[in-house]
Amino acid sequence: MQSESESAQALNVAFVAGVAPGKWFHRWEERFPDVPLASQMVDDGEQLAVLRDGRADVAFVRLPVDKDREGLHVIPLYEELPVVVAPKGHEIQAFEEIPLAEVADELFEYDGGPSERLDLVEGGAGLAIMPMSVVRHFNRKDLRYRPVTGVKPYGVGIAWRRDNESSAIQEFIGVVRGRGANSSRQESVQRDQQEAAKQRREDRAAAQSKAARARNDASRAAKAARGGKPAARGAKGRPGSGKRRGR
Fold first, then answer.
1. For the chain, does the N or the C end have fewer beta carbons within 10 angstroms?
2. How far apart are CA 234 and CA 65, in angstroms?
3. Bridge partners of 75?
């Protein structure tokens, strides 16, 4: 997959809060133990910047993103449930789920990271709508949350730059998408599979040739036994009487 000079270079993977990439990391380590993987969690506002400036080769991002403007490949993976977050004791605790219209007046605008947003909710700035996985990730004891209706689910995808098509990135995308080791696109794996298939064909042909020779030898031996003479070959290597034709 990589040259010797690149073999020690790590594959850098970024992910936003709430995404749990551990299962993919474990699969990578099992399948490609010679290629180290480095990971970092970033705020939503940094999810594209880390790809743009090269801090990450691949990133798990929140959708939507402008992949054409950013020059990215983006594959949607799954959707997350939106929830409204409030301080402990807020009236949302009395409901199983909350319509957006019921809390719209209490929402506040903030473009910073999720941890700071939760700080503001906890401090009484208002309510926030966030992915449930993010709220669970930070697990603030003084906050409560409920599913909110009337809000589109949050999408999560995996993104990488179009001008970076390394085999390591392609392998990682395959791991995330569930491609098995036997269908790996790794060059070395493909080469080994091709060589193994070639060897099987050669072994099969050799076995068939050996079996054919054994049958021929057995046939000549049987004919010789019936005629009381040892088996002999003609001038051209075929069974014959042992006599040569005249010129």
1. C
2. 80
3. 158
- Of 115, 130, 125, the closest CA to residue 90 belongs to 125
DSSP strands (E only) in 88-126: 98-99
User: pLDDT by residue for the chain (247 residues), tens digit each?
Assistant: 544 444 458 999 999 999 999 999 999 999 999 999 999 999 999 999 999 999 999 999 999 999 999 999 999 999 999 999 999 999 999 999 999 999 999 999 998 899 999 999 999 999 999 999 999 999 999 999 999 999 999 999 999 999 998 999 999 999 999 976 665 444 544 554 456 556 767 777 788 888 878 888 887 787 788 775 555 554 455 555 445 554 4
| 226 membership: H or E segment, kind and range | helix 187-227
Which two three-digit tokens encode residue 234?
């003609």
Question: 3-state class of 22 per DSSP?
Answer: helix
Measured CA to CA, the distance from residue 154 to residue 151 in angstroms comes to: 9
Residue 36 CB: number of other CB atoms within 10 A? 14
Give yes or no for a contact between 202 and 195, defined as CB atoms under 8 angstroms apart. Answer: no
Cis? peptide before 114, omega within 30° of 0: no
Measured CA to CA, the distance from residue 82 to residue 88 in angstroms comes to 18
